[in-house]
Amino acid sequence: WVQGQVCTGCSVTLLNSTHPSIADVLLKIISLEFHPTVMAAEGEGAYEHMMRVAEKFKGKFIFAVEGAVPVAHDGKCCVVAEADHNEVTMTEVTKVLAANAAAVLAVGTCAAYGGIPAGKGNETGAMGVSAFLKKEGIPAPVINIPGCPPHPDWIVGTIGLGLQALATNTLGLLVKQGLDANGRPKAFYKNVHMNCPHLSAFEAGHMVKTMSDKDGCRFSMGCKGPRSACDSFERKWNNGVNWCVNNATCIGCTSPTFPDGQSPFYVN
User: Fold this and answer.
1) Ranges under pLDDT 70 in the chain
2) Beta carbons of 76 and 70 less than 8 angstroms apart
């Protein structure tokens, strides 16, 4: 698990996994060999361990990327390690590990599509993992898990799907049939609008006047549900307590065009 241009929010949401617990995920389900936020090791030793494991299990490991990959200025906008007194950039690490991985997980919208780091005005040349690998001619299969941040279930669930596919030699089938047109697992990414509890209000033209209104559709306030995909409407957040459209609007954070294409997030 390597972090590029990112706020680390996707790692934080991963650590909030409850079913299964993050302890079970890390100790019983996967072997997490490198994660800058979680591991105790640091520095050159940690980086060298990651590269040794990647070489030992070449073609058999899952490479998770959190954050966008910046390509401007020779990639120096994001240095993720140091080896032999040389800086190692995110672009270098991504090329090596993606080329040797069985599959790549682009965790979060920044990794999937560029997200906020790739927004208008950026100076780093940030891009999503798929776009970067295509640019470099690396044919690694990529599974996008967008969200700002993604729900922990989407991350852990996709890891589970990936491990099962590796164990049954069906990774190609998963990538070909289990993902939507934007590279997202169909199991977790469904149209928000068509499943929204306020759909009948939308169809009846019953719109809220203020954000505090309990009844009515929030499309009038700028809700991006019609062009967004996730299963928060049934999965909810924070152990099923709430979700975006209950007391705000969907801002389309799982969309390939987030944030620029979804702005403004709210309207008067």
Assistant:
1) 268
2) no
